[in-house]
């Protein structure tokens, strides 16, 4: 039967239209996710440190990471508390260099802008690992990639992976 | 009467394609349909009017279809079937720019063709710019672990290098320790090792209706030989319940 005036779902052009619509939806979703104007993320961890002294017990403390990303600018603030009276912190800022949409990985150029370390600093040692640095100095520029491994915006939950150190943080999305 | 490149020879009841020099001797029903259309050229002829007394509707549509085919691609647009209304034989071939989405076989103008090509290229460039450096988020190692109480937990590992064969052995030891837990409340435990193997981070998580329950653990050691894995430590970091 002749039917020249209907745009059927199973026609070649119908399929093309549906494929185009799906592709556009996927791109919009990806763009929305990666273009989210602001992330305000807080992550808390139990930290354990095995010192060089074999007789010493495993030291146990708490760490907090506050991450804020807005319009390509990233701020990382680390807090640590190992001993009762010792509170340490370090603040880093960075700019987005590249965003890999497919793997949801953000490449930044970072700088340390402020810190407070104790004489024997666990936070300093931790940051050397996490940020893959030979030493921590103010004004020192270094690359850092952050990949979103898992995200559930409804439940305000994110899992991030720092590269090249390969460190994970499960976090609470505040905003 | 001239219809596209065909001549409708009423006298001999045939349709002659002058460009191909072929003729189609029309039977009574075919002649009736074409005669009706030619007589009302430029107007929609209803299906009722097109059917001769003994002609079935399906036959009539088949005849129209055959006529369109005989007119050839170039002049096919002269004859159009309009569902539930009838058939029209146009006086002149009409160009219909809106036909891109009207018919699966409809012609496409250069402008539409160019638009589709530009759209495809732009889509490819956009996708390539984002996907060119992708790495899969898949873990390097994954294993389901059953605790003594029968609960299942997935152990996922992200390695910093490609020494998978060395990693497997270490992960098996960790998995064995977790297996010995009486109960594990977590749906998954994700472990990431640093490239110097001196530090690692653990993420344990469990989904509830309202939220995700999770716990981060960081461990750093001064040198590789330092032992840290024990049943007590697994309890302390809440891997074992």
TrEMBL record, chain A:
Domain of life: Bacteria
Keyword tags: Membrane, Transmembrane, Transmembrane helix
Membrane spanning residue stretches: 6-28
UniProt protein name: Uncharacterized protein
Organism this protein belongs to: Shewanella subflava
Automatic annotation (TrEMBL), chain B:
Highest taxon in the source lineage: Bacteria
Claim: Transmembrane helix is one of the keywords in the record: yes
Transmembrane parts of this sequence: 113-131
Keywords assigned: Membrane, Transmembrane, Transmembrane helix
Protein name per its UniProtKB record: Helix-turn-helix domain-containing protein
Organism: Shewanella subflava
């Amino acid at each position: 039967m002749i039917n020249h005036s209907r745009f059927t779902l199973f026609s070649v052009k119908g399929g093309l239209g549906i494929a185009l619509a799906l592709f556009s939806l996927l791109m919009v979703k990806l763009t929305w996710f990666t273009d989210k104007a602001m992330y305000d993320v807080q992550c808390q961890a139990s930290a354990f440190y095995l010192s060089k002294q074999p007789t010493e017990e495993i030291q146990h403390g708490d760490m907090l990471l506050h991450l804020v990303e807005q319009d390509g600018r990233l701020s990382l603030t680390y807090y640590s508390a190992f001993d009762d009276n010792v509170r340490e912190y370090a603040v880093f800022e960075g700019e987005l260099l590249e965003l890999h949409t497919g793997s949801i990985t953000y490449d930044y150029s970072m700088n340390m802008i402020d810190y407070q370390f104790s004489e024997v600093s666990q936070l300093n040692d931790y940051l050397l690992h996490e940020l893959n640095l030979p030493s921590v100095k103010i004004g020192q520029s270094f690359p850092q990639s952050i990949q979103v491994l898992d995200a559930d915006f409804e439940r305000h939950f994110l899992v991030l992976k720092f590269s090249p150190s390969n460190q994970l943080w499960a976090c609470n999305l505040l905003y | 009467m001239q219809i596209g490149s065909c001549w409708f020879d009423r006298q001999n009841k045939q349709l002659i394609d002058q460009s191909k020099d072929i003729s189609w001797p029309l039977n009574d029903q075919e002649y009736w349909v074409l005669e009706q259309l030619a007589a009302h050229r430029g107007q929609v002829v209803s299906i009722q009017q097109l059917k001769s007394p003994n002609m079935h509707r399906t036959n009539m549509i088949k005849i129209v279809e055959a006529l369109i085919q005989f007119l050839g691609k170039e002049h096919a647009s002269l004859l159009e079937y309009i569902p539930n209304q009838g058939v029209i034989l146009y006086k002149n071939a009409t160009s219909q720019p809106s036909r891109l989405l009207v018919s699966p076989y409809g012609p496409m103008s250069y402008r539409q063709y160019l638009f589709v090509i530009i759209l495809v290229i732009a889509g490819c460039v956009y996708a390539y710019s984002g996907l060119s450096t992708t790495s899969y988020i898949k873990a390097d190692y994954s294993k389901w672990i059953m605790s003594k109480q029968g609960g299942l937990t997935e152990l996922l590992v992200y390695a910093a290098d490609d020494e998978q064969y060395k990693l497997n052995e270490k992960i098996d030891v960790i998995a064995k320790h977790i297996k010995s837990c009486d109960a594990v409340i977590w749906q998954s435990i994700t472990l990431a090792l640093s490239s110097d193997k001196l530090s690692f981070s653990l993420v344990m998580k469990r989904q509830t209706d309202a939220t995700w329950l999770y716990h981060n653990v960081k461990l750093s050691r001064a040198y590789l030989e330092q032992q840290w894995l024990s049943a007590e430590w697994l309890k302390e970091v809440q891997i074992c319940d």
